[in-house]
Amino acid sequence: MTRRSGERVVVGLSGGVDSAVAALRLVEAGYDVHALFMKNWEDDDDDTHCTAEQDLADARQVAQQLDIPLHQVNFAAQYKRDVFEHCLREFQAGRTPNPDVLCNREIKFKAFLEHALRLGAKYVATGHYARIEPTASGVCLLRAHDGNKDQSYFLYMVGETALAKTLFPLGDLTKPTVRRIAEDAGFDNFEKKDSTGICFIGERDFRAFLARYIKSRPGPIVTTDGETVGEHMGLSFYTLGQRQGLGIGGVPGRAGPWFVADKDLEGNNLIVAEGIDHPALLNDGLLANDLHWVAGGPPAGEFRAGAKTRYRQADQPCRVTMLDGDGCKVHFDDPQRAITPGQSVVLYQGDVCLGGGIIRERITVRHDEAVS
Known about the structure:
Number of helices: 9
GO biological process, one term: tRNA wobble position uridine thiolation
Strand order of the largest sheet: 12-15-14-13-16-17
Radius of gyration: 22 Å
Function: Catalyzes the 2-thiolation of uridine at the wobble position (U34) of tRNA, leading to the formation of s(2)U34.
Protein name: tRNA-specific 2-thiouridylase MnmA
Site (Interaction with tRNA): 128, 343
Binding site for ATP: 12-19, 38, 127
Helix content: 25-40%
Low-confidence stretches: 366-372
Strand content: 25-35%
CATH architecture of the largest domain: 3-Layer(aba) Sandwich
Number of strands: 17
């Protein structure tokens, strides 16, 4: 990381080990570092499920260790309006949203950035594993060196203007190295477990939490052959490709296992397929809208790329065709399993994250040819 003298940077200090080491590296590079602890979620069960109190204590220990100011801000109202309520609408429509992508766009690189600028910052910084590189026309978003931790997938909606004011101090480090640096620095959180699950749900039961906001509408679970094999609690509570929690017992003459293959919204049927490689789970492509391009626009014409339709997926070779309006068609070289409407498709060329969009529809070869 380039050494700077005296330029103010506000680092989002979450209480986790990643943001702690990010702050340390900024101090070592000579920046005027201020830390900001953000509270983005609160509800009636905070005392039971929210870790904010412990996270704040960990953030305070790091700030004291580094001798940097620690500010606090509550973005819960913005988060509920701009992230959570949008996610509820998506769940109610039978889709599966990605709150982390929206949180980065609306909170961490919008509300946080605006607040940091009011604190006199020239830059903001986070503990994300990603890299930013200047170009002739601006900046580009790159994968982190640690491919196992790279988080560029969750950052594709962040605009070039915000990225130009952002530092990612961990982009060239691996997670084991980060933990070792934190231990050597005397941070209490050096062994702290990484946060998992949907940010506003945390470790609690997904269905029980969602049922507080979305009314259950039970209906039949139906195989791809039309056989009823169980009952679902509401289509909003399931995602494509899901195996666990279907409650399907032994089906005579069928070995299973069963996976969610589709949702019949009109008939309120949850459609399941037998076996992980069932054709009903595979699709040749997808249609996406709500497109966002890091550099402001896509490559010219039809172009080749690598695509991820979920975070941990390896890049899948594909052809991307822009459509009239805010949309594109992605056709994969090989059929893909459990493409899920509501999730993001993120496009790469090498280490460069081009951008992406929200998956709205899965397509088969026949549908693909019809769209063409």
